[in-house]
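USER: Fancy drafting a protein?

ASSISTANT:
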Amino acid sequence: MENMKTAEELKENVRNTYAQVALQSKEANAASCCGAGGCSTEVYNIMSDDYAGLKGYAADADLGLGCGLPTETAGIKPGNTVLDLGSGAGNDAFVARAATGPDGRVIGVDFTPEMIAKAKENALKLGFANVEFRQGDIETLPLSADMVDVVVSNCVLNLVPDKKKAFAEMHRVLRKGGHFSVSDVVLSRALPNELRQAAELHAGCVTGASQESDYMSMIAEAGFTNVNVLKRKAIIIPSDILSRYLSPEAVENVKTQGLGIESITVYGEKTTETKCCEPNAELKEKVVATGEDCGCGIGSSCC
């Protein structure tokens, strides 16, 4: 129960933070860690990349919250159904819509009501009838199985307490042969304890980040194949933000050694191959009754 309570507290902190972020300017968001907390006076664009040259870019939907350009490597084709996880004000969804075209469909999911309202307002202004936004939790997506061709996400999964569930949900909603392109923050070593306990930096896409090796393992465990890191860049947290949590000596040490925080863009596919598995008693009864054995033999099932 304690772990569940902690997870819910983290979610509530993120929800409250991003409700405020929805009302901030892009400049304020981009000069902080994913929009969380106060801005840095040292650096502009701590994490975010420049969308301005991408087809479909809508400045009103760009809150400067990303840490990559996942739509660039998503391989979206005309007519595709695309899911944007943590869609915010709609920035990546609108870029995806330019790629999938009027015959495609884009679904954005975000669990902050203020972001959903802002995204819907932007879609209405742009006149996009094939872009919709749903309020929901990435750990329990409000979509049916085998529903989308491509999943994109930009600096969001690090905020999810149960990343295994999130990757499993991505796999569930993708059609066979579908794929994902996700930009996210990962770590190459452990963060100082003072930073890991900072609620501001959790909402800021830093302390919720996993070790890269663990992150990649969770993707593989969810069933994805052909998983590759396509891009990476170092994330530098300015010293005026670090000094809120670390001693002057520790800040100087970070300047020398770094924190081991990186943004990576990862690609992976949902295989078209059938896997056979031994079902539990309830599933076995269903398989025998229906004869739906997927070529695995009566009493077995595909998974």
Q: What stands out?
A: The longest helix spans residues 2-21. The CA atoms of residues 52 and 59 lie 8 Å apart. The longest strand covers residues 174-187. The radius of gyration is 20 Å.
